[in-house]
Automatic annotation (TrEMBL):
Upper lineage: Eukaryota, Metazoa, Chordata, Craniata, Vertebrata
Name of the protein described by the UniProt record: Family with sequence similarity 133 member B
InterPro entries membership: Fam133 (IPR026766)
PANTHER family: FAMILY WITH SEQUENCE SIMILARITY 133 MEMBER B-RELATED, PROTEIN FAM133
Residue ranges of coiled coil: 44-86
The keyword Coiled coil belongs to this UniProt entry's keyword annotation: yes
UniProt KW Coiled coil keyword: yes
Family: Belongs to the FAM133 family.
Keywords: Coiled coil
Highest taxon listed in the record's lineage: Eukaryota
Amino acid sequence: MGKRDNRVAYMNPIAMARSRGPSQSAGPTIQDYLNRPRPTWEEVKEQLEKKKKGSRALAEFEEKMNENWKKELEKHREKLLGANESSSKKKEVNVFSLLKCSC
């Protein structure tokens, strides 16, 4: 009784891929990427100029935010200065009361 031959033939994956032929890619090839249309130097200059100018809406929005920020700062300053004035008045009153007592 002989042993059973359970060897399997080796299949070279590279050779099998070559025998199937070139694979069909879904996306653009490198050649397509290299041959894509590009803007001329004049168009590039125009785009850069547009970027430098910026958008008018953004400038208006920033201006409005600056105004709001200034108003908010002014309110906060008034609160702080009001608190400082009241505390300084209290200190002055305390100093005068001490001077009156020491007389």
